[in-house]
Structures are given as structure tokens and as C-alpha cells.
Write a structure and sequence with these properties.
Number of helices: 11
Order of helices and strands: HHHHHHHHHHH
Number of strands: 0
Length: about 190
């Protein structure tokens, strides 16, 4: 079943077998009838790896299968962001949110785009909204920590980086931010 194939791909990825996870998801995405959920899983694997070249064709497949789906817009946003097109990334992230107001990852991407565009307050609101839908989102905590650090609020930054590191101990960006924030509070 599609659900079992998606679960299998997720388990393989979680176990560090990315190539096997990609192969499992690709099979369901490229075999007729194409399974949208497997295409979404394949897109997620490529997005997580930051592999724009591999992500873009999957986005094209999703656009053909489900042109106005929240995940389709989200992965189009990721591909645009990876290509350096921040405006298009924000547009697609906002469309994903319009289709699914609880899509936490789309808020993270919107926040990242707002950050790149210099819209600090909009970025902060997007990351905070992401946390309302997914309070275990270490990415949102890290990004909020970076915004607090940039605003000179080192104490808040330390708290946010600590939360991110509690959730994802290997997060190098949060570790670096924590060192920078602590350097100013000692």
C-alpha cells in the first residue's frame, strides 16, 4: 500500500539509508499510477538534502498530479528558495499556507524568506506560527534565536537556542548561535 511504502521510505531515511529511502519513494512516484504521497515523500527527501536538481523534476510531477496542493506549493517554494529566488519561495509558501493553514513547514519557509528579504517582524511571526502547529520544530527555535541575536536580545537567543538543541542536539547552526549569544552574556 502507499501508506506502507511512505512509512518504509521514512524509516529508511531515519535509519540513515537515504539512497534506499529515495529509491523506495521514487519507485512509487515514477510507476503508474503515480502515488502523490510517495512523490511528496521523495520531494521531502530531496528538500531535506538541499538537492535542488533532484527536487525540481519531482515538483514538476507534483504540479501535474496535484497542481494546487499545499505540498506542491511547499516543495515549489523549497526549490525556489534553493535556487535563490526568495520572492517566488515566499509566494509559494504563502499559497501552501492558504491551502493548509496548519502546514508548519510552510511557515518556516515563509519565515526564512522574510528573513532574507529583511522583514524581521514578519519572519518572527511566521516562525512563531510554525511553533503553534509544531512545538517540536527545532528549526523555528533556531531561526527565532538568530532573529533575537540579530536584535541584540542575547538572553532570549540563549533560551531559543537551548530549546532547539534540546530537540535536535546535533544542530550546528543552533550551537554556533548559542556560542555567539553566550559570548555576549558572560
Amino acid at each position: 500500500s502507499v501508506a506502507a511504502a511512505v512509512a518504509n521510505a521514512k524509516l529508511l531515511a531515519a535509519a540513515g539509508h537515504r539512497a534506499d529511502a529515495v529509491a523506495a519513494a521514487r519507485q512509487g512516484c515514477e510507476t503508474e499510477p503515480r502515488a502523490v504521497r510517495l512523490c511528496e515523500q521523495l520531494a521531502a527527501l530531496h528538500a531535506e538534502a538541499g538537492d535542488r536538481a533532484a527536487l525540481e523534476p519531482v515538483v514538476g510531477t507534483l504540479q501535474a498530479l496535484q497542481p494546487d496542493g499545499a505540498a506542491t506549493h511547499y516543495f515549489a517554494a523549497v526549490a525556489s528558495f534553493l535556487a535563490g529566488d526568495t520572492g517566488a519561495a515566499l509566494t509559494h509558501a504563502e499559497r501552501a499556507i492558504g491551502k493548509d493553514a496548519g502546514y508548519a513547514a510552510a511557515y518556516d519557509l515563509a519565515g526564512a524568506a522574510h528573513t532574507k528579504l529583511g522583514h524581521g517582524e514578519l519572519a518572527r511571526r511566521a516562525f512563531e506560527t510554525s511553533l503553534r502547529f509544531d512545538p517540536h520544530d527545532s528549526t523555528a527555535y533556531t531561526n527565532l534565536g538568530l532573529l533575537a541575536l540579530a536584535a541584540g536580545n542575547r538572553a532570549a537567543a540563549v533560551d531559543l537556542f537551548a530549546e532547539a538543541l534540546w530537540l535536535t542536539p546535533a544542530d550546528e547552526q543552533a550551537r554556533t548561535g548559542m556560542r555567539q549569544a553566550r559570548a555576549g552574556t558572560e
